[in-house]
Amino acid sequence: MREQTILLSSSSSPSDQEKLLQGLPPTNRVFKLVLTGGPCGGKTTAQSKLATFFESVGWKVFRVPETATVLMSGGIAFGNLNEEQVMDFQENLVRTMVAIEDTYFAMAEKSGQNCLVICDRGLMDASAFISRQKWEELLEKLQLEEFNLCEGRYDNVVHMVSAAVGAEDFYSVEEHSARFEGLELARERDRRAMEAWEMHPYVDIVDNRGNFDSKIKHLVDIVVKRIGLEIGDRFKADSRKVKFVVKGPLPPNIAFPKFTDFEIVHHYLQTGSRGLQSRVRKLGCRDGGRWTYTMTVRKPENKGQVIEVKTPVSKKDYENLLNHADAKTLPVFKTRRVFMHRNQQYQLDIYRDPCHDRCHGLMMLETFSTLPIDELKCKVPDFLDVTQEVTGDPAFSMFNLALKSEWTAKDFCRRLVLEENQDEADSAIDEEAEVMEAQQRFFTRFDNTSDYSSGNEL
Predict the structure, then answer these.
(1) For 417-422, which contacts have Cβ atoms below 8 Å and span 24 or more sequence positions?
(2) Within this chain, do residues 246 and 146 fall inside the same structural domain, yes or no?
């Protein structure tokens, strides 16, 4: 059998080689990342978070699908295969993974820009499902060397520990057609996936010691540090999202540091439950290029955490989901301007027409930080007229801003609550008074009668 080529040739230019000798990264970098781990570890949400961030700072992102899931979604039940079928499956899995990954790697190398390639599992993961002896026989048959499958192929491996290890209350096999493992098997799969990559020099473990939000932040912080980007403390484990209202008019473009503008459209979907929110998002660069589509489901608090699941979807799925748009809400159109200021990343969301009258001219600045709010206020961009902090205020939640009608106790969402706890939550407060207070806070903190126009052509 002809030997399969695993290592790609270097494409660095002489100028890039000079930069490397000076300890600087090349102009156009390709960083190949493997996300691995046991079932229900958060890989899908992690991919979405990584892609959103790196695209916002001007990187091209390729996401290599999990080959095993692609194969099993066609009717193969791995748990029901006999030994011979398992070996056939693993052999063809490795062959297919090599072909698919090499396709994405080649596209990244020739893209002419910084690229992050996210592999949903890598080649060494295949070794976690068969014995060491069988794995070595497979490598020999395919004329592959383990070293080249490991250290020579990927820049970084991040193991997302399964929820079955330390976050059992959040472990689920729902909404994943290829997942069938119970807790004990999930823990075994997690352990073996971790052991499969022990030869790689850059393996990072992201466990479940904090909540899920801090787990995802930890992951992004790891990848950012491995690549060597300077982004402040946005992805520190104890960082939190902070939102401010920005008073207009929008400064001219020249007042901003280097920035990227994205066009975003959100649609809320029908859920049949006040305790659940679901939406789809379309995002694309203003200067053209492709659109990306994401579905987000926000679930009520569990153990003090609001569960938010982000899933990339295809254009076709996105268009089909729009048939289930919530008639109580309007689409939300925004321009999102992403920029760095004093090594801190910011997102400025500028609400666009068509929108509800309450949103005309609304601009909100968002960042993530570990700093106390008073200290952070002293560091926000001085070229923006940053006014009130509105973090966590339901009066400024996107769902409530999207409501077609004026706010009423029936539709206004104060917080997500499990259905069985809804009556208890409702009885604890005066709903109408809460809505009136929210309206008062909104119009006190945001005066949409001011002149929010600018000379920029957005």
Answers:
(1) 417/274, 417/275, 417/300, 417/301, 418/275, 418/300, 418/301, 419/273, 419/274, 419/275, 421/300, 422/274, 422/275
(2) no
Q: Are residues 212 and 247 in the same domain?
A: no
Q: How many domains does the chain have?
A: 2
Assigned domain for 12 exists: no
- Considering the domain architecture, whether residues 41 and 74 belong to the same structural domain is answered as yes
Query: Both 111 and 206 in a single domain?
Result: yes
Q: What is the pTM of this model?
A: 0.62
| pLDDT at residue 120 tops 80 | yes
For residues 223 and 248, state if they share a domain: no
Domain that holds residue 417: 240-445
Same domain, 288 and 170: no
CATH number at residue 55: 3.40.50.300
For residue 178, the tally of other CB atoms under 10 A from its CB is 16
Q: Each residue of 60-106: pLDDT tens digit?
A: 999 999 998 888 888 888 778 888 998 999 999 999 999 999 999 99
76-85: pLDDT as tens digits: 887 788 889 9
Is 223 in the same domain as 268? no
pLDDT at 279: 94
Together in a domain, 270 and 218: no
Tokens of 372: 């106390």
Domain closes at, from 197, 227, 257: 227
Model confidence pLDDT, tens digit, residues 271-310: 877 778 899 999 887 666 678 888 888 877 555 556 677 7
